[in-house]
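Side project, low priority. Logging it here so it doesn't get lost.
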Amino acid sequence: MNISINISADTVLVCTAVVAAASLIASIYAICRDRVKLKVVVIPDCEKEDLLHMGFEAEVVSSIEGKRCVIKAINVGRRPISLQPKPEYKYDGETATDVSGWRPESDLVEGKSAAVIINKAIDLSKLTDVVVKDVTGRSRKGKIPKTKE
């Protein structure tokens, strides 16, 4: 009893092309999924109670008078991110870093966040840029909410 299976070269070629394409798609997906992703948001008009609820220390919050803006950096990617000491913001054309409460973990892992309070009361219409940098120098701009006029 002799069993013989014949596969043409064209069939092998097609199967090889399908496996290669599937491998390429899986590799591209894994690369895009595992990139560093940092979301930066500005939370306006925070009262003392809001700041305490966000996890700021009582000694930092106690010295604040009135409403303040908070800059929050959230790691929405899968890789840990090491952030630089202070975020920057442009207010009324000038770059500033006068913030308090900024204590990011050594590595901001997936799903974790770090937040900071801007030390002065600001008008959101004059806030133009909010930038958080990681230790490699890559910067992420924050989303500034629109002011109601």
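Brief comment: The mean pLDDT is 85.
Revisit when time allows.
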